[in-house]
Amino acid sequence: MLRWVLMLVGVLVVFGGVFALKAFFAKQTNNFFDNMPQPAVAVSAAAATPQRWAEGGEAVGTLVAVNGTDVTTEAGGVVRSIEFEAGQPVAAGAVLVRLNTANEEATLKALETSAKLAETQAHRWQQLGQDKLVSLDEVQQRTAAAAAARAQVDAQRALIAQKTIRAPFSGVLGLRKVNLGQFVSPGDAVVSLQQLDPIYLDFSLPEQLAGKLVEGTVVRASIDSLPGRAFDGKVTAVEPQVDANTRNFKAQATLRNPDGALRPGGFAKVGFDLGGERDVVVIPQTAVSFNPYGNAVFVIGKVKRKAGETDMQGKPLTGDKLVVTQRFVKTGATRGDLIAVTDGLKAGEQVVTSGLLKLRNGAEVTINNDVRPAADAQPKVENR
Questions:
Q1: What's the angle, vertex CA 323, arms to CA 317 and CA 328, rounded to 5?
Q2: pLDDT in tens, 145-168
């Protein structure tokens, strides 16, 4: 029993020493890494500058034809002739397609003959009624029958007219969607027709501008497919309701488009001036970290070093150091590479413009502006 007790005590002492030694080394390692000096992160920086911006805004929108539709047929039938060329302009009322109307025209002749006979009989019975040879009721019946016959003739002529498909307004035709001899049903599309001049531009804006953007505001639009060109217009309609889901409201501008360069369905950028100016604090957009929970920037500040601070080689460090502090800000309008900060930042404060992913709150940094992102209010992409 004594041997067993001594052996058990010896095992406990050996294993206890091993675990104690391991815990000691782990603690010393953690202390080393916790107190190990971190190298400064190289970043680029820019100062928040006060500027005076004209009151206005920018948005993106969609071009919409003032009148645009797929021309359809009201009556069914076989296509007898196609009297337009795809992609060509047409005037309002121009004949586009004629359907076969042989049966309808034959029926029209029969109805016209019946109507003529009914009118002759009604005229004769009216004379007899004046001579008191027939009753007034019989005269009215003959007159009503003649009117009904004329109505049938008009209805048949309207049916024949429906089989002559005309352009409802002036515009430019698209690709034809029917062929000779093809049977078309009521409602089938024949060709697309779009009125290009003038043209609408629909765009959305935040509700903060709902009381500022009014009808008559001058706008200037541009499209990526025509670099260097600008199209001027005016706001002609403002939606009175704000969308409850997006908190935006819609507006519509009318643009001149004499050469048809703007096409319905295209993407356009629109800018407008609301008059007046305001003071803003501006920083590069690359300095802002956009997050669902709020936008933030890293502000650079100077702090005194603690006594005994050393670099990675153990050499003592002196003087002030640059550290970053993450700060949440409210942002406003943008212009090119710049963005306005409405709250949370003062003019003159320095913010980090590149290397944000490497930073944490309180990290030490060094500023290297040899290579930094562009910050231009009107950037121009170099054509290479």
A1: 170
A2: 888 888 988 888 888 888 899 999
d(CA 58, CA 338) in angstroms, rounded, equals 13
Token code pair at residue 9: 């005590």
Reported as half-sphere exposure (CB side, CA atoms, 13 A), residue 328 has a value of: 4
**Structure tokens belonging to residue 341:** 């900060």
AA identity, residue 306: K
C-alpha distance across the termini of the chain, in Å: 91
pLDDT at 232 over 80: yes
User: Token pair for residue 15?
Assistant: 């294993």
∠ CA 380-230-334, rounded to 5°: 50
